[in-house]
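ok so for the tutorial part 2 we go from a plain amino acid sequence to predicted structure tokens. step 1 is just haveing the sequence, like this:
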Amino acid sequence: MVNSKQIESNRSPVAGPVLAVIMAIIVEAMFFGGLISAYVLAAAGQVEWPPASQPRLPVSITFTNMLVLLFSGWTMWQYLKSVKKGKPSNYLQITIILGFIFYLVQGYEWFRILLFGVQTSHSLFASFFYTLIGLHGFHVLIGLLLLIFLWRYQKKGGKNLYNYSLAVGLFWFFVVALWPILYNLIYLN
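step 2 — the prediction. this is what the tokens look like for a chain of 189 residues:
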């Protein structure tokens, strides 16, 4: 016969949604690690990187945009702290707004680079730019959708809000932490 203490000890110390996101982040980190490694190796094999024909990327606006994204990580942290205390704050909405600002500015930048005529067929650098920055943008979009889901879930008074908040927060922190690496690698070369 199984007693309640045995059942209790068989429970995972990490909530299911949190564990799922941690595993997804590990996979995504390996994926981006492979792409970043390929980029570094490709750059090391070139005499001139990025190519002289490549339009210069907008370093200052992208740096400012990076600060917006980093601040969204701080607001997400503040939201998680408030949920843990049982008093969800409006920091989640601020995180969503900051995430959208980042996403829109990056989209505008991408559009301007396309107007300059930069295509993946122009250079290896352009191919890496669109791949790495585009995939990060896709992850930002997924993160924004998760944040919106979380906001709606909170409004409905969903159960286990902290576990879902932590899961979404971990994904958002991954997206936020990845951007300075990509910015330094791509924009500051």
